[in-house]
Amino acid sequence: MKIDLYDKKRLGIYVHVPFCLSKCAYCDFNSFVPGDDIIMTDYVGAVISHMEDYREAGRGYVVDSVYFGGGTPTALPQKELKRLLLAVGRNFELSKKAEFTVEVNPGTADLSLFRMMKRCGVNRISMGLQSADNKELAALSRCHTRQDFVSCFRLARQAGFDNLSVDLMFGIPGQTTASLMKSLAFVMRMEPEHISLYNLKIEPGTPFYAKRDELRAVLPSEDEEFEMYRAAAEAMKKRGYMQYEISNFSRFGFRCIHNLKYWNCEEYLGFGVSAHSYFNSARFAFIDSVDKYIAAVKDKGAALRLTKENETVESRERMGEYIMLRFRLNDGLGSVDFARRFGVSFESIYGGKILKYLKNGLMEKREGSYALTTAGMFVSNYILSDILEFEDLGSLTGSIT
Ligand code: SF4
Q1: Distance set, CA 9 to CA 87, 97, 230, 342 (Å)
Q2: Which of 231, 293, 384, 385 sits most deeply, having the most CB atoms within 10 A of its CB?
Q3: Domains of the chain by range and CATH?
Q4: Low-confidence ranges of the chain (pLDDT < 50)
Q5: 71 CB under 6 A from ligand 1?
């Protein structure tokens, strides 16, 4: 049911679809290539049943963002994807203006699929292009070409989607600043409303990790990566794509409402394997095995047993989380908002720590807010680990995810 009552609490819904057509060499997401359609049908049934279990808990909320991610949601058979899309509105109250995103891999969607999604209420498509250079796509072992992306993008427009986002990557083996800028120029000519720019990370357990020594010779250096990030951010700004988060740029009015919920510490419920939630002041996540997930959902009333972590977030921890998430955003952290949330001033606790970053240009203060500059965003992990006094989160290249 679609309603528009903003006196209710707002909620985001995330649905994880862990299936892909093939596995990319760098990918450490919970996704795999299914052996047959039966597992996909069973999984969709389990996710729907799981949503039904939360229907009562969701009363009193209005859903203003839905996000289907993965994996590749469009790897599902069309009728299964449709079943899953419709289940959201059947179990939760959807705002008439809800942002409803589905991630699409180029080459996995035709016109009829886009039209079906549109009819089901989807109004935003996020396409994982990663690079417009076919050699770089092959190096990433992506299952599509630049031409597949062009066709897919045009079909989405033809079906009436007026809010399209494109993912690009930097730090790809063999990539140069010049080749990234060509990919970016190509994407901007297609005029999507939103662009995400991620840094390739070599994650343990992936084929890339197994051959990391060999890859070192063809991976861009940290200095080159910083130049790529800086140049791309500048080029997007010139074309009207304003940066609003470390990795995200949009035309006016097209910031991703769903992702902003994560960074603003707002409530969301996740369904499916590995899906995380922040609901009623508790954070929890579901197990990552598809078989165990399906079995546990069938065991009615045992939904919570799926949970592998279920913690009430304490105030001090919430403060740390809030700082980490707010410094991802261009708007940064507002002193007044911080004091209102935590009853203590940001400066009284962290004023000494942030001074050097304000002096060296990695952070700036504007209109009562502290925010990282572009250079600061590139090394955000180091800055945050210093401010919050925890072990740093890895290399510079790990700072933009
Ligand atoms: S398409 Fe996305 S989720 Fe699937 S294997 Fe590639 S990177 Fe991973």
Answers
A1: 20, 15, 38, 20
A2: 293
A3: 2-263 (3.20.20.70), 315-398 (1.10.10.920)
A4: 391-401
A5: yes
